[in-house]
Amino acid sequence: MKDRLIEKMYEHTKQPYQKYFKKNKPWDIDKTTLLTYPAESLGFGLGTFLTKNQFDIQPKLEDHDIIHVLTNTGISVREEIGMQYYLLGNGKKSLYLFLVISSGTLFYPKQMNYFIQQYKRGQQALPFYYLDFSKMLHTPIQSIQKTFNI
Hints:
By secondary structure, the protein is an all-alpha fold. It has one domain. Helix content is 61%, strand content 0%. It contains eight helices and no strands. The termini are far apart. This is Coq4 family protein.
C-alpha cells in the first residue's frame, strides 16, 4: 500500500519536474542504440538496465537511470529512496531529492538503517552526480566506478 502511494506521488510529480526544473536537453539516443555499445560500456549498461526493467528512456531524466547502473541499485521503492540518500551523501542537493527523502523517511522509518548505510556509501564515493553522463556512454562502467570509488 505504501509503495503504491509513493509510486503515485512520483508519477504525479515527474512531468512537472521534467518540464520546470530540469534544464538539460534530452539525450538524442534510444534503448536499441544503447544496446549496440561495447558490453562493458556505460551505454550498454544503461540499455541493459532499461530492457531488463522494461523501461524506456525518460527525456531529461536519463541521469537517474545512469545512477542506478553505476551504484548497482534496484528499482523497488525502498531502493529508490536509498539511492536518494546515496546521492545526498555524495553531495547532491535538490528539491526533488529532499522530497523523496522526506516522504521515504516518513513512510519507511523501519528502513532507516538501510538509508543511513546508503548515505554513508555516497559519502565514501567521490562526487560524481553532476557529471555529463551523455558524454561518457562509451566509457567502461568499472572505470567510472573505480575512478569515483562508487
